[in-house]
Every structure is written in structure tokens, then in C-alpha cells.
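User: Structure please.
Assistant: Input sequence and predicted structure:
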Amino acid sequence: MTRQLPRRWPRGIRWFIGLGLALSALAVAGFVWLFFLGGVAISDRTMIWRMLRNGGIDPPPAAVVARQLVVPPGFSVSLWATDLPSARLMVPTPSGDLILSQPRGGFVVLLLADRNGDSRSDGRRILFEGLDRPNGVDLHDGWLYVAEATQVSRVRFDTERGSTQGALEPLITGLTADGNHWRKTARVGPDGKLYLGQGSTCNVCVEKDARRATLMRFAPDGSEGAIIATGLRNPYGFDWAPWDAGLYATENSRDLLGDDIPADELNRIEDGAFYGWPFVHGRKVVDPEYGSGNTARIAEARPPAHEFRAHNAPLGIRFLKHPERPIEFQRAALVALHGSWNRSEPDGYKVVSLHWGEDGAIEERPFLDGFRGPAGLIGRPVDVVEGPDGSIYVSDDYAGVIYRVSYEPIRDSSL
């Protein structure tokens, strides 16, 4: 006997279905407003759609790179490696190879140095796959450190052979990866300690997990963990100035306060310091929701060492150490600006150089520019590293490529 379906669903089920449909309609309406009416430029709508569809674009041809990307006099830029979806953070090996994380697919790969002289990587080798969204990678004292979404591990690494020995050994476990900014950045400092940056779950909120929106420090084996800096919405990149070992971290400030506020930040990290989020942003932008009634926390907040333009999204940072550089790059760092997604006039999409004066003042200049140009948007820089020969490598998770910037000193032809 065939069982007939009821003509009407019970009232409770109908209520839940109606609520679900209403919420879905609101979500669709919100996306339509952001995408078509909310001030997002046409080119950025194309960018967002292509990123949603496949996580990137086809690599730009070498001719486009040569025509559109601009570097300072004496420098040149080329495509060094392609076909690297979600290319994120890097660490060079002493032998000139490059280790790269690719969160999508869970890859950590070894990109072989250019030993045949064709200005391209000689190939690649998968070190790990199927990891939990690896992001931060670093080398120290014969170990390769890998920061996944919920843990930091290490494995013995032979830099001459470019190979791991044994299995990953978890050091720091139980990290949360909910909400926004789930990527973890782990690096070993000049003091031999392991540093871990972890962003917030939200645009602006008071976190339940005290480890979110902080920078932490551990012994190299993951023990002796401590939070050393708080109020850092997304401390994605950090590095140490070679002249005084000062620790600097980039920070992406909150969204949805307008095109031009608040500024994104570079913070000089001091033990125990509080850097403002979510109560105050930049040097003096009081949060409209969380600033009220928190005057003591606002007064306590450390101002940034340098302000980037709003929504430029500074990510990776590296201080330059190779001696064969123009004099103006002897006290300088490079910072990858990933670029805006929420400005009516797109901004960022470049690598900038920061130059420290003797008085501590920081000047920002363009270094690798032109990712937006006649050919459209061709890339979004993520990380910057310096190889042992002085070559500068820039990862791009939009086109899935690595660029190499080389410097050729201008020789005196009269000598």
C-alpha cells in the first residue's frame, strides 16, 4: 500500500522552514548589496568572483610582468615559479631553495633554486600534503617548523638534500581556528625562542579565547608558552630589525568604518604591551561600539610605529640583511600589501619598503608596484623573503606564483 505524504507540514516544521528561507533571503540580499551596490569597484567584483570560483587566476605572462610591474632603479623582477595555488608564507634554505606553504590542499613544498641559470625555479618537491591549512613555516637549528590551523609542529630537515627526516612532531596543540583569521604564523627569533601570531575570530569583538589576537612566545620545543602582546587584530607577519633586534608585526585593522579609516598598522612589539584592538584603532580612532566606557584601555594602548593606508592589508614583512644593497636599503624592511577588498577605490596591491631613520622615523616608499594596471589586477602579494644570494622572493596567492626581484649593482664603467 502506498503511503501518502501529509498535505500540510506540522506548524513547528513550517515555522522553521519559513525562518530558514527568510534568513537565506537576507543573506543573499546582503551579498548583492556588497557585491553590486556597496561601493565595490567593477574590477574588484570580478576579482571576488574569480577568487570564489577557483581561488586564483592564471599566472600573468612574462611580458605582462615586464610591462606592468615596476621596481626601483638597479632592480629587476621576473616570474620565478608558477602553478602554486594559495601560495602564502615562505622561508629560504641556506642552499638557495625555498619552502612554501599552500593552505589549500594542505601542502608544504620545496621549490628548488635556479641552478641552471634560466631565472626560474628548477622544480619542486612536496614535503607534506593533507595538512590542516598550513601557513607559517620557518627553519632553525636543523628543524623545519610548520604552523597549521590548530597546531604548530616541527620535523628534522636536511637543508643540503632538501628533505625531511621522520614525521612532524606536534609542539603546540589545541589552538582554535574558528571565525576569521585562522591562519597561524610561527617564526624563531634571534633569541632562539619560537614566536606565534594568531588573529581574531571577528572584525571587532571581545574574544573568549585569550590567545586570539595576540603574539605568543615559547621555548623551541613548544614549552614555556606565554602571551607577550595583546590587542593585535591580525598580527600576520613579523620580523626582527637586524640593528637592534626590535620585533615588528604587521596588523590589519578593522573593517566597515569607511574607505579611509582606520589605518592598518606596523607595531613594535614589547613584552606585556596592549595594542588597542578592539577598543581603539591606529593612533586615535576610537571604536564606535567597544570604545565607549573603556577609556582606561584606550589610554593604555600602544600607538603603531607606522601607519599604512586603510585596508591595504599588510601581511609578510622582512628586514633586508644582504650587504650588497643601495645605501638607502641598509636600514629597511619590505612589506607585502595584499590589497583592499572593501574600498570604493581599490588600494594596496604592492610591496613597499620601509626605511628607518637614525631618529627612528619610518618612511614608506613603493618597491614592487603595478599589480593593478593596464592588464587589470594580476596579483596580490602575501609574503617577502630574502635568499642567501640577496634575491628577493614575493609570493602571490591570487595568481599562484612566486616573483623574484634581483639587484645588479651599477658598476663604474671608467674603472
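Residues 331 and 357 are 8 Å apart (CA to CA).
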